[in-house]
Amino acid sequence: MISRTKVALSEETIQSIFKNAGIEGVRRISPLGEGEYNAVYGVTADKDYVLKIAPAPETPVLTYEKNMMEAEIYWYDIIRENTGIRVPQVYYKDFSGKQISSDYFIMEKLQGRQRNEITADKSVIAEKTAKMVAQIHKIHNDRFGYIQNELYANWYEALCSMIQNLNEDARKAGKRSKKGERLLNYAHRYKSILADVPCCMVNYDLWDANVLCTRDKNGEIAFSWIDPERSFWGDRIFDFICLENPFAPLREKKDSLKAYNAAAEIKVTPDRETEIRYAFAQGLMGLIQEVEKYYRYTPRHFGWWRNVLSGNLMYKRSFGVLKNG
Fold first, then answer.
1. What confidence tier does 2 reach under pLDDT thresholds 50, 70, 90?
2. What is the 3-state secondary structure (H, E, C) of the chain?
3. At what angle do helices 272-296 and 178-189 cross, to 10 degrees?
4. Residue 299 phi/psi, 5° resolution?
5. Contact indicator for 106, 92 with CB cutoff of 8 Å
6. Which one in 110, 117, 162, 249 has a CA-CA gap of 20 to 30 Å to 272?
7. What value does the CA radius of gyration of the chain take, rounded to a whole number of Å?
8. pTM above 0.90, yes or no
9. Residues 169, 201, 114, CA angle at the centre, nearest 5°?
10. Cα–Cα dist 109/303, whole Å
C-alpha cells in the first residue's frame, strides 16, 4: 500500500546492500507484502530473502514507531527463545546509517499465504491463533510499555503514556484528538483496574497479513508470524482485539476464549473488569488509527478513509463500555 513513510530503493542500491552483507548473486528483486510503514522487498540470490527498510530518519513518525526496527528484531528473539512459534531468522542488520540513511535488515523469507487467503473453517483458524497467543502471554516482564520508549512500573502508567504520546503526535501534526483526550480521562477513571494488571508480551498486531499459513501433506495448517515490531509489555487482553471480529465485544469471541483458556497460564473470563480492559484495547487502536493517518496518508489514499471508518467504530465500541463501566 502507498504510504509516505516507505523508502524506495533502486535495484543497484539493493544489490549493494546484499553485497555488503556478504550475499552475492542477486538475480530478482520485487516489492513484497502489504505493509504500510516499512518498505519491504523480496530478493532472490542463493535463496529467497526479505529486505526490510525503515523510514528515512527525517521522516515524521509516531513516537512509538521511533527505533521500531530494533524492537522487531528484539521481539523475534523473544518469540523464538520462549515459544514454539515459527518466526524468521535475521541474517544481517545495519543501523549505522553508513550505507543508506535508513535502518535495514535482511531476514529469512518464510513460505505461506496470508491467514485470510487459506480455505479453512473459521473456528479452526481462531483456535490455532488463540493458542499461539497464549504462548506469548507466558512470557513475563516486571516493567510495562514499548521497549523503544519508556517502561513503567504498572499498566496504568504505561497505557497513559501511550495515549499521551499519541495525543502529542496529533498536536505535532497540527491536529487535536478530542477522543484521545477522552480516552486518557477514562484511563484515570479506571486506574484501580489498570494498575493491577499482570505483565506479559502482547503482540497487538496479529492481523491477517502478519500470520502466514502453510499446509502439510496431511492437510494440517501451520502458522508462522512476521512483523512483531508493534509488540509491547502489557495487558494480555489487548491481543484479543486481533482474535475474530475486532469490533465485537470480548464475550462474543467464544471460539478464541475457549481455545485460549485451554492453553493459557491465566484464563480470561469476560467479566466487567476484563470488558473494561478490552474497551481500552479498542480505544487505543482507534487512537492509533486516527493519528497515524496524518503521518502516512492524504485524504486521496484508501488508507486514510479506512482508518477514519475503522477508528471511529473502535472508539464507539470502546466508549460505549467505558462510559457505563
1. low
2. CCCCCCCCCCHHHHHHHHHHCCCCCCCEEEECCCCCCCEEEEEECCCEEEEEECCCCCCCCCHHHCCHHHHHHHHHHHHHHHCCCECCCEEEEECCCCCCCCCEEEEECCCCEEHHHCCCCHHHHHHHHHHHHHHHCCCECCCEECCCCCCECCHHHHHHHHHHHHHHHHHHCCCCCHHHHHHHHHHHHCHHHHCCCCCEEECCCCCHHHEEEEECCCCCEEEEECCCCCCEEECHHHHHHHCCCCCCCHHHCHHHHHHHHHHCCCCCCCCHHHHHHHHHHHHHHHHHHHHHHHHHCCCCCHHHHHHHHHHHHHHHHHHHHHCCC
3. 150
4. -60, -10
5. yes
6. 162
7. 20
8. yes
9. 80
10. 26
Written as one letter, the residue type at 204 is Y
Q: pLDDT of 136-179, one tens digit each?
A: 999 999 999 999 999 999 999 999 999 999 999 999 999 999 99
Q: What per-residue confidence (pLDDT) applies to 118? A: 86
**C-beta separation of 260 from 130 below 8 A:** yes
With 0-12 / 13-18 / 19 or more C-beta atoms within 10 angstroms meaning exposed / middle / buried, residue 16 is middle
Q: Which of 209, 287, 216 is nearest to 242 (CA)?
A: 209
Which residue, chain included where needed, has cell 484515570? 188
- Specify the pLDDT at position 151: 98
Q: Identify the CA nearest to 256 among candidates 234, 233, 239, 277.
A: 239
Calpha distance 90→143 (Å, rounded): 26
Mean pLDDT of 102-129: 91
pLDDT in tens, 249-290: 999 999 999 999 999 999 999 999 999 999 999 999 999 999
Angle, vertex CA 105, rays to CA 104 and CA 111, nearest 5: 130
Residue with cell 467464544: 254
